[in-house]
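Changelog note: in this version the structure field was regenerated for every chain. One regenerated record is shown below for reference.
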Amino acid sequence: MYYYNNILVFEAEWLIDNGIMSDDQYRNMAKRHQINVVRRGCRNTPALVAYDSIPERFKDAIKNLMKCDPYEAARVNEIEIRIKDNAEASKFFEDYLLADGRNLPKETRIEYYTNAIVLDAISTLLADRKSFRAARGTRLPRKWDDIAVGVQNLDRTKYPHTLPANARRLEDRYKRYKKEGLVSLIHKNFMNINAASVDDEVKESYLAELLAAPNNLDNSQVARLYNMIAGQMGWKQITRAAVGVWRKKLETTIYARRRGSVAFSNTKAMQVKRSAPNDPMIYWTLDGWDVELLYQKVTISKYKDKATGETKERQTITYHHRPTVVVVLDACCKYPIGYAVGTHETPELTKAALRNAAQHTAQLFGKMYRANQLQSDRYSIKTLTPIYEVMAKKVTPARAKNAKAKIIEPYFNSINKKWCQMLPNWSGFGITSDRDKQPNTEYLNKYKSSFPDFEGVCTQVEMIIQRERDEKIEKYMELWNSMDESKKIELSQESYLLNFGETTGRTILLRGSGLHPTILGQRRDYDCFDVRFRDFASEKWKVMYDPDDLSHVLAVNDDETRRFVLEEKYVQPMALTDQKEGDSEQLKRVRDFNKGLTDTMIERGTKSINIVRQHIQETRSIDDETLKRILITDSAGQHKNVKSQARRLKESAIDAVEIDDIHTENVSDRY
């Protein structure tokens, strides 16, 4: 609002932004010439509307908003032209803390800041007037009536101050501001705590202890107990409403004792936000889950018939059982890389889930791989840590009772809603869920006889996992194929069988034809293409195997210091006419091994011969040098005969260690 060409005008944008008129109203009145647009708007130049041409209903709205007559406000205001921003005042009110630790409300900060800059403008005006009087040599009274009018004529939309309109009160406010500074502008309701009933640390501590009681007293109980203490100490009494205010104020302080440390960590402590890995096999997490699917179980109990005295059997069927599944989840794509189903969670079930994960990597990638990192919970952590370390380069157990750290928990919820809820034997959500979202109990009781048994519910779980895999496998394999090879960590067959393999329960010796353990009731033949294996023919070997893949087994000695991966013997047909593709390659492989074995034995024999020869020569040369150097006769007075005899003994010893070449022309045929 200002004068333009001696016409009092308002900017069209100001009228619209302050709700005086809508944009459509402005355009329609301008088009119909119902208002006088003295200047059309363009870039960086606002449109101006003559105040006199604005209809009365809009003029009333302007006056109500400005709380004064526009003509009065448009006069040159000595206060307004001296108003300047005050960064110090802005920071003071922005950072000011009240007695209860709160900051000033936003609207209050704006009000106090405006009051400060207006009072600063009054101070500048008084200083200017004083200089003017001193220059003229006159003494004129300070006209606070004029100053008060100027303050009240300020545009309240631009300067929303709350300074008094009365000249004397305005002068008092100004004097107090100059004496006490910015703090004098803060209302006593914010500053005064004298009327509070809980006004020191002792009283606050008593109240905090009552509010933090683990039996969770309500506001009335806390007020009654506090007032009993206050009566003895001569303190002011408090009301139930006052307790409610303090409960909110002390919420963080008392929460841990009211709800427990776990709840405090999950709801009050700062949470870490994490991002899922972009590549597969980087981060695995696992956990057990009681699947929300019911199955029936038959229990046989014995009882004594009172009439006959005979012992009989009674069959009871129960329908409330739920299976447990341990899932190994790859955080990339939330792909279930491994799982195992049982009646309850055990270390063996977790081990089975990890074994399934290793097997599934072989199905996906052609060979078994380990994860870079595995996160587990604290269940049987000492027992399972060695197994975790086999399947991952790094093991990072989650903090105890920190469910939020495991992304697998919400994954189970999604599986329950997506798949389990669609099945007739669904048991519902958790016990804390809304009852209206649970299944119809009458329906479950009516159709409980159709619930599957344990094997049937295991089939349901396997179907769910397979569907999850089918939905995500394409994306999972695409990411694997584009993954940097340096991030892929293979799992050796030796390590897999040593940690996940089953054993026959007995030890056996190596024979010339290989190792012949009895596995799952059937005698099998295995051998090893490692030459070192035949060096330990006297060892007793324990055989470890994977019941799902008997093509390879692991032979381990008693203390597991020697381990060899064996493969099942390839059966060659006797008749040439029975040979098929691959037979000749396998036969050649055996012959090459036997040739290498023979060469190794010859090399070892040759080495030992050379050592013996060298030792004999070194031993005899000492005696020869003595006979040559010193002329010492024997008891018969002979010296030359003794020297000749020593030479003949040396030659016979060397001849004794000479051996013929090893003949191996038929070794490769003994298979």
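Spot check on this record: DSSP finds 22 helices and 19 strands in the chain. The first helix runs from residue 12 to 17.
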